[in-house]
Amino acid sequence: MNKTQTKEAINNEFFDYVESNYGEGWILEEGMGGRMYVVPRYTKKGDDIIEYSLSQHTICTYNWGSDETKQVEKDLNIKLSEILQKHNK
């Protein structure tokens, strides 16, 4: 598998995880510059958005985001680490 295929496999596995585990309360939105956003359905505030980099495979959110958002970010980071380890990244 070349680098592009590996990155796509990592992203697809991550998206599948988000949709299967957070599909009810969270949605994926396409952002600009190679980013995806995991957005909670319960708020319209931008402070609770979790940003995922498609090329760097990193996750971040605002320090002042809600406690629920911070917990979801922690959970997603754990799963992303497992996915990256599986793909030797």
Structure description:
- With 89 residues, this protein is α+β, with helices and mostly antiparallel strands.
- The chain has one domain (3-86).
- Helix content is 45%, strand content 19%.
- It contains 2 helices and 4 strands; from the N terminus they run H-E-E-E-E-H.
- The chain has a 4-stranded antiparallel sheet, with helices on one face.
- A hairpin with a 5-residue loop joins strand 3 and strand 4.
- The longest helix is centred in the first third of the chain and has 20 residues, at 3-22.
- The chain is globular, with a radius of gyration of 13 Å.
- The model has no long low-confidence stretch (mean pLDDT 88).
Structural features:
globular; four-stranded antiparallel beta sheet; single chain; alpha+beta; 89 residues
